[in-house]
Amino acid sequence: MHAPTPLSSIQLPKQAFHEAAATLFPVASLFAFLFAFGANRDDLALLSTAVFGLQVLVLLSLKRMRQSSVWQSLTVPGALFLAAVVTSAWALTPFGPDGPHPLWSYITAAPAIALGRSGVMIGLVKLAGLACCFITGVMVCSSERRSRLFVRGLLVAGGLYGLWSLVAHAISPNTVLGVPNDMHGGRLTGSLFSANAAGTLFGLLLVVAIAQFLAEVQRGSARPLSLAWRSMLPSTAAALFAVCLALSTSRGAFGATVCGLLVLMIWTRFARNWRADKARNIFISVGYLALAGVLLVVGNVAVDRYATALQDWETQRTVIYTTHWSAFLASPWFGYGLGSFDSVNKLLMTSENYAQLWNVRAAHNLYLQWFEEAGLAGALPMFAATGWVLFVIGRGAVRRRSNRSKVILRGLFAASVVVLVHSWSDFAVQVPAIAALWALLLGCGTAIALSSRDADPAGHAVHPHRVGQFWSGVASPIAACAGIGAVSLVAGSVLFAELAFPSFPAVVPLGSAYAGRAVALLSKRTITPPDLVAAERFAGQELAQNPASVAGWLRLADAKVLRTGAVGEGVSALIERSFLVGPLDPDVFEWRTRFALEHWNSVSPAVRDDVLAGIRASWLVWPQKMWLGHLAPTIANPAGRLALTLAVGALNAGDAAARRVAQSDQIP
Fold first, then answer.
1. What contacts 639, CB < 8 A, 6 or more positions away?
2. Tell me, what's the pLDDT at 175?
3. Any residues with CB less than 8 A from the CB of 635 and at least 6 apart, and which?
4. Three-state SS sequence of 228-289
5. Is the Cβ–Cβ distance between 425 and 364 less than 8 Å?
6. Which residue, 263, 423, 575, 648, is the most exposed by fewest CB within 10 angstroms?
């Protein structure tokens, strides 16, 4: 008889090429969408959802990917996520405590709680894509070999992205892939158009890189050369991420990253036996000192911006938060529908808050925006699902037998701290590619924390879940995951095609798709009468889905003017309606102002008053003030030109009076 083989000598099965490719493909696809401006457009976000859905179906077709002990433990987050989806979708109905939103009374379509149906449907499909990323992380990291390859692949891809970001920033700091980006004053943005979002991304990757550095140091031989070789990739990547983070000069990202690093380092300090291996401890200490040196050397630029942090908070953040918190309190149960922030923001703009809200595209607070869009019924289950996953990751960081698993789990937990802390003051998670990366890492952490690879010799899992075992007898979690993948693939593909290709049939009624068709017709050099009839029909269909679309009301008015050749009461009524749903909408300010001035004799007195009020409010914003100063000579209608000249003259006189008062106050 042969002696039994010791457990410590058992080798993991070799990884096939297709399995390694399937492990690295999610990383490659995710960074591809990061390069595509973070997929921060509905069409690109829907395309990424389709890719993530296909990814899940492909991974489920591989036997080794399906073989995981984690499936039975996904009941709780799955149920909470489903509750969030169902309650968010409920906003498509008119049945709520406060009934449908009053804007639906402007049209004849069936009403809803949400401001628009299109945003809700697109938001639900995006959530399905994030679920696919989570499932992908679970499947990929349920194997020890695959999780190691995944983390290394993530650091390699992130390092290449960081290196490209540094080079692109050095060559042209005010452009992103050739597109002008003057809003961030030469700060590093990567490919995201937002230095704050880039800061969150590099801060998250920095924490993961340091966790991998600690895991490599604690594994295997303690010889200095061996330690240096194994830690080369994570240490180099960490240095790159630290430099990119500092050059983003994002105060919130910098502070959130410090919070994440403190969680990781303190947790590591109290979890390690520092007397056991002096060589590794010295190596870890040197790594910490090197990181601190990098942050100190290049972090002065970010630190300088903290001097204006309080002023920025008082002048803009406070206005954003108080305005939108009031909006949430007005509809607390189901909110205004996923994707409704921009419409709500335009509804809430006044002459008093216009200077703070005119260029805001997100609430700069993830939690507030979820409450406003999904209400308590949708936000609380989503927060609970995320909290459950983080609890599992944190518990796994304590209970796992493998030191490497513990360290990686601490790193993933600390990386989530970066995201959660910065989400209090910014909108990085609203960037679809960053949200997908976080969902992928959460799935990875869940797999490492709950996998039975740290099983006892009898093969029993460390953390059996009776609820999960009951669920597995009712329905197959694998089948549910396959269903999510199929829905994401089909829905993402169809909605992407509708938005990207105007000739694609309207399988799902989307207001933004109808808007694209109307714009294509109204932009033709030679517009025929049938084109105008079709454009008017498409604009009406857009408003039937999104009555809060300011541009939709103006497109309908434009089509009617081109078709009839006159501005009658019907057209004035449409323009008045556009002022009701967006009194100071900066996206249509120039078109609406010029149109009204050119037809000043024909528009109603209410439209004239609204236009003059918009001119006075926009005078507070420098780009619009400059545009107004050069507009009068281009207006052909004498009445409109005179009205604008008088309005601008009064505003200039007010500025001159304010300057005289300021100068007199400075004289001793």
1. 600, 601
2. 83
3. 594, 597, 598, 641, 644
4. HHHCHHHHHHHHHHHHHHHHHCCHHHHHHHHHHHHHHHHHHHHHCCCCCCHHHHHHHHHHHH
5. yes
6. 648
Going by C-beta distance under 8 Å and a sequence separation of 6 or more, which residues neighbour residue 400?
A: 406, 409, 448, 449, 454, 462
Q: What's the CA gap between 447 and 452, in Å, rounded?
A: 9
Q: Per DSSP, which regions of 183-262 are E strands?
A: none
Give strand pairing partners of 176: 179
Tokens 């540094």, located at residue: 166
Residues 6+ apart with CB under 8 A from 521: 527, 531, 532, 534, 535, 538
Distances (CA, A) of 322 to 26, 241, 337, 343: 39, 34, 19, 17
Q: Rounded CA gap, 437 and 428, in Å?
A: 11
Distance of CA 35 to the CA centre of its chain: 14
Q: How far is the first Cα of the chain from the last one, in angstroms, to the nearest whole number?
A: 104
pLDDT tens profile 596-609: 999 999 999 999 99
- Quick one: tokens of 286? 């040197």
DSSP 423: T
Q: How many CB atoms neighbour CB 21 within 10 A?
A: 10
What are 469-508's pLDDT values in tens digits? 444 433 478 889 999 999 999 999 999 999 999 888 889 9
Determine the pLDDT at residue 666.
60
Dihedral angle sign, alpha carbons of residues 7, 13, 19, 23: positive
Name residue 227's amino acid. Answer: L
State the DSSP string of 483-539. Answer: HHHHHHHHHHHHHHHHHH-TTS--SS--HHHHHHHHHHHHT-SS--HHHHHHHHHHH
Strand 179-180 relative to strand 175-176, pairing:
antiparallel
* Structure tokens, 514: 């109808």
Place of tokens 């209410």: 606
pLDDT confidence tier of residue 549, bands split at 50, 70 and 90: very high
The three-class DSSP label of residue 156 is helix
* pLDDT at residue 67 in the model: 76
CA 41 to chain centre: 10
Is residue 660 scored above 90 in pLDDT? no
Exposure of 307 by Cβ count < 10 A (0-12 exposed, 13-18 middle, 19+ buried)?
Answer: exposed
Q: 80 is written with which tokens?
A: 């909470």
Mean pLDDT within 328-336: 96
Give the max Cα distance, the chain.
Answer: 107
For 350-373, give one letter per residue: b (16+ CB within 10 A) or e: eeebbbbbbebebbbbbebbbbbb
What pLDDT was estimated at residue 11? 45
Cross-strand pairs, 179 = 176
Distance CA 561, CA 516 (A): 19
Residues forming beta bridges with residue 180, ordered by sequence position? 175
d(CA 654, CA 331): 39
Rounded Cα distance between 417 and 420, Å, is 5
Q: How far apart are CA 357 and CA 323, in angstroms?
A: 9
* Cα distance between residue 652 and residue 649, in whole Å: 5
